[in-house]
Design a protein that fits this description.
- The chain is globular, with a radius of gyration of 22 Å.
- It is α+β, with helices and mostly antiparallel strands.
- The chain has eight helices and 20 strands.
- Strand 12 and strand 13 (about 200-205) form a beta hairpin.
Length: about 300
């Protein structure tokens, strides 16, 4: 396992795509095996986790982590894309809204909700991206998806705009939240700006700006805290330590029996680390053999080997 296998935290600038950020990282590091763990729209700024080398095996897992966003909503008119890049739907008439009323309606979204994605989104319909259909003038039928909104706080209201903070599950469209809030208020609304502040336990404050990344030397790219090796990266999972023999079995895909330091539950995902502290795998607790005692771990994502 190389010290170039790890997570690169990038603060994406407005106007570039998530793929653009990946391309910048590839140019600066001369490493092709880099991917991102969750798209940010060009309009949005904020945290993008780039997985480098063997850490690309963590992409699917990182995509499922809870996200925190902050942004601004414009009230008075909706747009076809649900954000400021879209075509206005109806007359552009700013609507002043009271903070108490907005905050009350925002709280009604907290919990599990069925959310309909925007037509201008990357969601696939019969194998085609919805935005491709929408750009051709077609009207793709968008089906609702169950998402969880843990927090939707209105931080300030000034005239016809509101500043908000959202904590939500993977797959949530914040653009849809802004649009649907406008529908509830009866005034129309769209997302004016958005920044992603956190993904799981990773924070924007630790990230390197995408513009700074584009000027960085290779050594600067791999500097702390914006780059975390697989020894340093802390996933929001319980840590389980294994010995060398168990490590060899685990990387071959075999189930291993371990005695965790703290109790863990059946079906729980855990970070598995070797005696050197390296993250070897993410495993699932296949069976708790005895309460407070040994458990059987089934590897889900193995980070050692080819």
């Amino acid at each position: 396992m190389s010290d170039r296998d790890g997570l690169l935290l990038v603060d994406k600038a407005r106007g570039i795509t998530s793929h653009d950020a990946v391309q910048i990282a590839r140019r600066r590091t001369h490493i092709k095996k880099i991917g991102h763990s969750g798209t940010l729209d060009p309009l949005a700024t904020g945290l993008l986790i780039l997985c480098v080398g063997k850490a690309t095996r963590l992409q699917a897992y990182l995509m499922e982590m809870e996200k925190v966003y902050e942004g601004t909503i414009q009230f008075g008119w909706a747009t076809d894309s649900y954000d400021a890049t879209g075509v206005p739907v109806g007359e552009k008439t700013p609507a002043e809204v009271g903070r108490e009323r907005v905050a009350k309606e925002a709280r009604s979204f907290v919990g599990e909700i069925d959310q309909i994605p925007p037509r201008f989104s990357a969601k696939k319909i019969d194998g085609v991206r919805a935005y491709e259909l929408a750009r051709r003038g077609e009207m793709p039928v968008m089906t609702a998806k169950r998402v969880t909104i843990s927090e939707f706080e209105i931080m300030a209201v000034t005239g016809s705009t509101a500043v908000f903070r959202v904590r939500c599950s993977a797959g949530t469209y914040v653009r849809s939240l802004a649009h649907d809030l406008g529908v509830k208020l009866g005034v129309g609304a769209h997302l004016l700006s958005l920044s992603r502040e956190a993904i799981g336990g990773f924070h924007r404050s630790d990230a390197i700006g995408s513009e700074a990344l584009d000027r960085a030397t290779r050594e600067q790219v791999f500097a702390s805290p914006h780059f975390q090796t697989l020894r340093e990266a802390e996933l929001p999972l319980a840590n389980v330590l294994i010995d060398r023999m168990q490590e060899e079995k685990l990387v071959r895909g075999e189930v291993v029996i371990v005695k965790p330091e703290s109790p863990i539950k059946e079906s729980e995902l855990v970070s598995v680390r070797n005696p050197d502290g390296e993250l070897v795998a993410i495993a699932e607790v296949a069976q708790v053999l005895r309460e407070g005692g040994p458990v059987a771990l089934q590897p889900k994502v193995v980070l050692r080997g080819r």
